[in-house]
């Protein structure tokens, strides 16, 4: 049966697979629910698309051999979705930021048996972490699994915007050849000021990769000082957000989404930025106010915005990010919009790493072993990570 969410532009097969083996009555057998994105025909064409409903993180047979019940679905957005049905009695839920199943307070309330949430990837904001803490539900993620993948995407997107690649490519593919139309908005990255909001694994890798570009200055804003980054790249820490934003030609956003960063980059913060700056956000869509970004782009206050995340995924067809375009007009298409679907952290290489990481977390869980400290977001009713805000 096919279901069509009103939010979705394309039809996502309501495909759920349940693998049961032996009896599920053995006391140590658990129900595991995974919500992944659908690969359709591409899953067969590319079996290394592991993080999909079809390829099941490569762990289906392994779980089956142990007698566990493994339910995999992409159907997540409606109250009668497979996700909402199966979360009620699952002990472990595996989700992915690329097609997030939102474990809100309401959903967690219905999940009476839930003990463990695993993020296949990095970024666990789709889980209400405060409620998870209250309920003593552990949240783990495969920390570091896709940070290089994202950093590469960020560097690419910065160049795509600064060099004005998108309208140039559109013009060319449509048979055009008008150098001036594109060149009037095309710059060098050399000599520009680039700063990262958040200087953890991804932010620091972005600045490391930008070092050979001879930028005028690399800066970062983070409540945690990163001395290694300063040493490696010469990046300067700026402690005042207004000063940080005010100096930048390029802002790259690389912090988690939580109550302290939700809507952080709004009309007021954008007004602190220089006219003509570029913004790249591969962190989370809700860190910026999408309507304010669109207004700043269309007024010409910012020259470009790119990234791969939106506040709801998939976004509704009317979402500002689908429609925003720069104040500078192009005959063959739009400028200033370097958005993609959520792909930066789900390269084939990244999928191999986060699939292996999920298996390792499950192995530890089944064996009663401690998880790698870096993978622990919340456990035992408290935040283990220092990345989701300064907490007591
Ligand atoms: P990380 O935990 O290594 O670093 C995050 C940094 O952000 C920390 O240094 C933390 O102190 C800082 N931070 C937190 N709140 C801040 C604030 N208010 N202002 C400034 N800095 C703040 O995390 P990592 O691996 O670098 O990932 C960062 C985020 O990127 C993830 O939480 C996730 O949301 C996103 N991500 C996106 C992916 C994609 O495919 N688009 C894939 C992987 C991660």
From TrEMBL:
The record marks 284, 342 as: Important for catalytic activity. One of its GO terms (cellular component) is cytosol. Substrate binds at residues 122, 146. GO terms for molecular function: formate dehydrogenase (NAD+) activity; NAD binding; oxidoreductase activity, acting on the CH-OH group of donors, NAD or NADP as acceptor. Its EC number is 1.17.1.9. The keyword NAD applies. It comes from the Eukaryota. InterPro entries: D-isomer_2_OHA_DH_cat_dom (IPR006139), D-isomer_DH_CS (IPR029753), D-isomer_DH_CS1 (IPR029752), D-isomer_DH_NAD-bd (IPR006140), FDH_NAD-dep (IPR033689), NAD(P)-bd_dom_sf (IPR036291). NAD(+) binds at residues 201-202, 222, 256-260, 282, 308, 342-345. One of its GO terms (biological process) is formate catabolic process. Residues 156-329 form the D-isomer specific 2-hydroxyacid dehydrogenase NAD-binding domain. PROSITE patterns: D_2_HYDROXYACID_DH_1, D_2_HYDROXYACID_DH_3. Belongs to the D-isomer specific 2-hydroxyacid dehydrogenase family. FDH subfamily. This is Formate dehydrogenase. It comes from Moesziomyces aphidis (Pseudozyma aphidis).
